[in-house]
Every structure is written in C-alpha cells, then in structure tokens.
Design a protein that fits this description.
about 180 residues; mainly alpha
Length: about 180
C-alpha cells in the first residue's frame, strides 16, 4: 500500500485576517448584502419588465439586442469584444437568446437572494462573477468591474462573508 504524504501550506497572517477572521464578519456582510442587492434589483427589473423582453412572450429580444451591440465592438486595433467571444456570441448565445434571457434574469435573482441571505455565499459570488465577466467580455462596463472585484473578494472570503447567514455549518470548523 502506498501512502501519500501531504503538506499543508500555512496561510499568511494578513490573508487569514482578511478572509478567515470572524471579526471582519460585519464588513463582509455589508459587502455581501450590497452585491446581492445589486443583483436582485437587476434581475427583478428583468423579470417584471412589462414588455416581456426578458421573460415572457418576447423573451430573448433584450439579450439579442445586447449581443448584437456587442458584435459591433469587435473591430479596430483594440476591440472591446475579442474574436473568440464574438464567435461564442454568434454561434451559441444568439441562436439561444431566449434561453440565455431566462438564465440571466432568474440567475441574477437567485444570486442576489443567496448573497443577501448568506446562502452558499462563495458559490453565489462565483456565479455573479461569471455573469460580470461575461458582461465585460461583451463590452459592457457600467458597474461590472466593481461588482466583479467584489464578487472575487467574496469568493476569497466566503467563510467570513457567509458567517452571518443562513448556512453556518462552517462556524464550528473555524478556529
């Protein structure tokens, strides 16, 4: 029988303080709730849109418009949208705009609720970051860089970011 020797690498004191010290739980809760609120409001606006361009009879109209706008940003010396992402837009996202429309609208709501409630904080922040990255890759700046940075921090600090939340099983494991 072969045994595998494992070595644990100690965590630097600064990162341990920032990402694992429960004294920072109030700060992380504020960041988590702020990011969650932003996602919830964005998703709710899409789901309740009276024109039904996100969910409903005309689902996909808004996504198609957004994606077609992104494709106009693929030219020049420094395009806002890279060629490989333009391929993804043309061949995957646009043909399935209706599906992506529902995924974005309800995904934003689910991410927002999970972050506000402190439910699966790291996972919710990760998927929020994935959405932000996709919006950025499509050339939409707006609040996406800030939310992407905050989502990344929440992923790093998930233990403390979700400390005051619904899922608290990790509380007993921390020392």
């Amino acid at each position: 029988m072969t045994s595998i020797r494992t070595n644990l690498i100690s965590e630097p004191h600064l990162t341990q303080f920032l990402f694992a010290d429960t004294r920072l739980a109030p700060l992380w809760a504020l960041i988590r709730i702020y990011v969650g609120y932003e996602w919830l409001v964005a998703g709710w606006g899409k789901v309740t849109n009276p024109g039904g361009v996100w969910v409903g009879e005309q689902a996909g109209v808004a996504v198609s418009g957004f994606l077609k706008g992104a494709l106009t940003k693929t030219t020049g010396d420094h395009p806002d949208v890279q060629g490989w992402y333009a391929w993804f837009i043309q061949n995957v996202a646009l043909p399935n705009a209706s599906v992506f429309s529902y995924m974005v609208a309800y995904g934003e709501i689910l991410i927002g609720l999970a972050l506000i409630l402190g439910l699966f904080t790291g996972l919710a922040a990760f998927f929020g970051g994935v959405l932000n990255a996709n919006f950025l890759l499509a050339g939409a700046v707006s609040s996406n860089p800030v939310l992407f940075i905050l989502a990344t921090w929440l992923v790093l600090g998930w233990r403390v970011a979700g400390y005051w939340g619904l899922v608290d099983s990790h509380r007993h494991e921390m020392s």
